[in-house]
TrEMBL record:
One annotated GO molecular function: 6-carboxytetrahydropterin synthase activity
Keywords carried by this UniProt record: Lyase, Metal-binding, Zinc
Keyword Iron in record: no
Organism for this UniProt entry: Candidatus Thiodiazotropha taylori
Gene3D superfamilies: 6-pyruvoyl tetrahydropterin synthase/QueD
Family per similarity comment: Belongs to the PTPS family. QueD subfamily.
Biological or metabolic pathway of the protein: Purine metabolism; 7-cyano-7-deazaguanine biosynthesis
Cofactor: Zn(2+)
Superkingdom of the organism of origin: Bacteria
Pfam families: PTPS
Protein name: 6-carboxy-5,6,7,8-tetrahydropterin synthase
Length: 139
């Protein structure tokens, strides 16, 4: 098995609905997305994927969608206020946890045809959350 990883750095704000701790307040993070690709066979150039191909694809989308954006749950009561104020907001159908952001990025990379197996998000230097789909069960 061959594997490569690509890191993308970005900043975002969020808050978590129904959280009992300080994450219930609007706050931000300097995050790193770590995208892991795997394949059994290398391409004709001897690569899993050209680093610039996956980097350009994901970075462009993150820059347009997540970077310097407030990520909020669709039920967040502050959402209409921020939208009315002209603030940049990305609306999620789930709580904007690092786990759910990792899944969001995973699904985007997968839709692009890349052999993604896992996406991890360093929300801080010491806090990492990951998403990878469950392996199909064997009968």
């Amino acid at each position: 098995m061959y594997a490569v990883t690509k890191e993308i750095h970005f900043c975002y704000g969020h808050r978590l609905l129904n959280h009992q701790g300080k994450c219930r307040h609007l706050h931000g993070h300097n995050a790193t997305a770590v995208i892991r690709l795997e394949t059994e066979q290398l391409d004709p150039l001897g690569m899993v994927c050209d680093f610039s191909d996956i980097g350009d694809y994901v970075k462009r989308w993150i820059d347009e969608t997540l970077d310097h954006n407030m990520l909020l749950h669709s039920d967040d009561p502050v959402l209409p206020l921020l939208q009315q104020a002209g603030e940049s907001v990305y609306v999620m159908q789930s709580n904007p946890t690092a786990e759910n952001i990792a899944r969001l990025i995973f699904e985007y990379v997968e839709a692009g045809g890349f052999p993604v197996v896992e996406v991890s998000i360093f929300e801080t230097e010491s806090a990492l959350a990951s998403y990878r789909p469950s392996s199909p069960s064997t009968p």
